[in-house]
């Protein structure tokens, strides 16, 4: 029976295995398989990867069968199929838009609740409570907790405000952690690394369940409102995919085809970004660049575009911000031109963004690895509560850390306007250096807070903290540049500015935008989508070129310290079966460099006499690996997947078959060599298995896995099995240089 008992995934870290859906066919299956067992279908198991070739072939066959139907019935089938697809797209877009708006309202109310309440309605946030007032008019309807409780002493006011601020922050974050840990552990973190793996074929349905959707949304609102250094943008992509997954379970065409389901999830992911940033075009480009979902299918891109637009329209219709605009951080257009000398501080910001972005990635990866192998891994709620207390206590002391990150970014992007109130003295010309110090202190504190927070047992995104860090540094550089101009207005470098320093020449608010784009480029390593998201986010269409320059330079600088962005690093730490699209260049190695030799594989050896059902059952029970090569003598017959074999054995046993009945994998034309009573299992062998020689270049093997979505390649010579390479081997090969590869993988 089995040749060697060494598993072909042995010594490869996380056990990422393959499975495939299979439906028994009734040709040449032997006398013991009834119609009941033939209809049985094997579902994909958690942790497996889908067979893209089989799924795509099944979808083509389904469409061919519909087109082959004649008359009104055939026409109606096509119309209903298309209508069902667009109905799911529309419902996905509307649902994502409504969820995003609900989260915005809840986060704003909970966040404002830490500092006060509305006198005429407990459930009004500060903006809603003070709506209708003229600019500069004092809002008496919104009261701090010390005012509401009639505390007159300044010292007692400070203690009360700080105590309520810290207590509610701890309560919100702790509640979020309890919900996640108790009801939906998959709801923690951002979710984008897992979504990328799922879209590439990884099976993780538990990650998209209804409880995950509910807890992710509620926990996200609590976590953001707690004031921790995190955002809701990345987790909204996860929420959108959960909603689309629930819809897909209602419609048969998605429920029975994993490839089609992933195309729907790709469209939902684009809608999630669209709602998170108010950027429908940026959402589509995010799916194209970061999720790598649209490159091979224009229909998927079109559906993602439609879903993003519908989600954005739904968000604007609800108007959670009360601005009647999708633009979250409006940039004033008072200075629509920029000067050549400004390229110097902008390039400096770009270099700094690349350096700090790379530093943030390394710090976050180191913290995640430390957390996994320390006592913190056993006490996640204690970690969340403790770190929230530290964050809230420090944040309350620094005015720019105390407010929500979204409010901070909105004010840093704004230019000084005499008709509007001065945001904590940011426009005071006599306090330039004090503001620069506070902004740099805020940025450094947020780098430390974000590196630790992104990975705790709560929903957390990294987009908004990254934008806030870059905006603080950018605004500080803008204030320094503006201060130099006011001090030396006649200097030659400022010759393109008006000679009167009271006339605006430099816009520190746009420096904040440049800093934010540079920091985003350094952390995520995205390019086009960042530019589009930022100019849709701010409305700064006249400054697209400086944003492009900052993203380009920051990516160049950050790539010098590692090619992978934050999401790719987390995928490598979890060892998800996701292959990056970057080119791989070998150094003269061949496939034998990563191939597992035939002697180390668990094989099913055919000798013409077959094997008993009992032996096959023992093989499946003893080994949890996903596939077994089948050989006849020394000749390779193919490979049988474990799920197929297990389902077949269960079907045989359900028919009260004897465990001593013999089976064969020989084709029907040769199966009579062992007797006509044997059960022929040749139909279980994989129909499409790629076979190569072991001396082919390693670069070719990697390219095949990347571009053909393969799960394994068999290597043979003159028909003899020489070895095998799986997708897991290629993942390890491409992530071997990562300092923390596999640090978070399940052992």
UniProtKB/TrEMBL annotation:
Location(s) in or outside the cell: Membrane
CBS domain mapped to chain residues: 600-650, 688-735
Matches recorded under SUPFAM superfamilies: CBS-domain pair (SSF54631), Clc chloride channel (SSF81340)
TM annotation in the entry: 72-103, 162-186, 207-230, 236-252, 264-288, 340-361, 381-401, 432-454, 460-485, 505-524, 530-553
Membrane topology classification: Multi-pass membrane protein
InterPro entries referenced in this protein's UniProt entry, alphabetically: CBS_dom, CBS_dom_sf, Cl-channel_core, ClC
GO molecular-function terms, A-Z: voltage-gated chloride channel activity
Keywords for this protein: Chloride, Ion transport, Membrane, Transmembrane, Transmembrane helix, Transport
Major localization listed first in the record, in broad terms: membrane
Gene Ontology cellular component annotations, sorted alphabetically: early endosome; Golgi apparatus; plasma membrane
Record protein name field: CBS domain-containing protein
Top-level taxonomy: Eukaryota, Fungi, Dikarya, Basidiomycota, Agaricomycotina
């Amino acid at each position: 029976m089995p040749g060697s008992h060494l598993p072909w995934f042995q010594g490869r870290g996380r056990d990422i295995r393959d499975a495939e859906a299979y439906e028994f066919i009734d040709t040449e299956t032997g006398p013991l398989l009834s119609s009941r067992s033939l209809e049985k279908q094997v579902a994909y198991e958690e942790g497996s990867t889908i067979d893209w070739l089989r799924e795509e072939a099944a979808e083509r066959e389904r469409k061919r069968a519909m087109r082959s139907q004649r008359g009104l019935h055939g026409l109606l089938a096509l119309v209903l199929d298309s209508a069902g697809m667009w109905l799911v797209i529309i419902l996905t877009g509307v649902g994502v838009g409504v969820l995003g708006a609900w989260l915005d309202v809840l986060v704003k109310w909970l966040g404002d609740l830490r500092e006060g309440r509305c006198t005429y309605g407990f459930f009004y946030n500060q903006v809603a409570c003070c709506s209708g007032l003229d600019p500069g008019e004092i809002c008496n309807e919104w009261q701090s907790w010390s005012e509401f409780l009639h505390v007159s002493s300044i010292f007692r006011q400070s203690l009360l405000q700080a105590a309520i601020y810290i207590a509610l922050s701890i309560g919100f974050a702790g509640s979020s952690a309890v919900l996640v840990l108790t009801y939906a552990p998959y709801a923690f973190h951002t979710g984008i690394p897992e979504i990328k793996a799922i879209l590439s074929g990884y099976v993780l349905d538990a990650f998209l369940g209804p409880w995950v959707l509910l807890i992710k949304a509620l926990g996200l609102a609590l976590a953001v409102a707690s004031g921790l250094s995190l955002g809701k943008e990345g987790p909204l992509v996860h929420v959108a995919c959960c909603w689309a997954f629930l819809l897909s379970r209602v419609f048969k065409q998605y429920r029975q085809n994993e490839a089609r389901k992933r195309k729907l999830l790709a469209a939902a992911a684009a809608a999630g970004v669209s709602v998170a940033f108010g950027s429908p075009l940026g959402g589509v480009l995010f799916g194209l660049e970061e999720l790598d979902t649209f490159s091979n299918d224009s229909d998927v891109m079109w559906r993602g575009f439609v879903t993003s637009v519908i989600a954005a329209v739904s968000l604007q219709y609800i108007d959670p911000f009360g601005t009647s605009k999708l633009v979250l951080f409006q940039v004033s257009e008072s200075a629509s031109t920029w000067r050549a000398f400004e390229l110097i501080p902008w390039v400096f910001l770009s270099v700094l963004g690349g350096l700090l972005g790379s530093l943030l990635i390394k710090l976050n990866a180191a913290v995640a690895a430390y957390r996994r192998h320390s006592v913190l891994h056993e006490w996640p709620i204690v970690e969340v509560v403790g770190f929230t207390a530290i964050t809230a206590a420090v944040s309350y002391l620094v005015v720019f850390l105390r407010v929500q990150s979204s409010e901070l970014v909105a004010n840093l992007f704004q230019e000084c306007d005499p008709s509007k109130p001065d945001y904590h003295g940011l426009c005071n010309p006599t306090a330039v250096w004090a503001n620069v110090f506070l902004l740099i202190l805020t940025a450094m504190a947020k780098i430390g807070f974000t590196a630790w927070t992104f990975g705790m047992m709560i929903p957390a995104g990294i987009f908004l903290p990254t934008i806030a860090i870059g905006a603080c540094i950018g605004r500080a550089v803008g204030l320094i540049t503006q201060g130099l101009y006011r001090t030396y207005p006649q200097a030659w470098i400022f010759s393109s500015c008006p000679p009167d320093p009271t006339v605006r020449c430099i816009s520190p608010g746009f420096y904040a935008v440049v800093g934010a784009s540079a920091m985003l480029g350094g952390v995520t390593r995205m390019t086009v989508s960042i530019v589009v998201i930022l100019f849709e986010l701010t409305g700064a269409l006249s400054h697209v070129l400086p944003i492009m320059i900052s993203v380009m330079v920051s990516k160049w600088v950050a790539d010098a310290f590692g090619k992978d962005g934050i999401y790719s690093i987390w995928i490598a730490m979890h060892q998800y079966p996701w292959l990056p699209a970057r080119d791989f260049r070998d150094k003269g190695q061949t496939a034998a460099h990563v191939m597992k030799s035939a002697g180390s594989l668990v094989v099913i050896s055919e000798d013409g006499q077959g094997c008993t059902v009992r032996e096959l059952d023992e093989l499946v029970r003893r080994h949890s690996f996903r596939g077994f090569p089948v050989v006849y003598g020394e000749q390779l017959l193919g490979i049988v997947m474990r799920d197929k074999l297990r389902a077949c054995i269960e079907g045989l046993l359900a028919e009260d078959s004897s465990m001593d009945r013999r089976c064969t994998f020989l084709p029907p034309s040769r199966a009579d060599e062992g007797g006509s009573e044997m059960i022929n299992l040749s139909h279980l062998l994989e129909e499409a298995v790629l076979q190569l020689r072991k001396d082919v270049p390693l670069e070719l093997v990697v390219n095949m896995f990347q571009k053909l979505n393969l799960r394994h390649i068999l290597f043979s010579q003159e028909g003899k099995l020489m070895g095998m390479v799986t997708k897991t081997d290629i993942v390890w090969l491409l992530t071997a240089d990562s300092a923390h590869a596999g640090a978070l993988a399940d052992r």
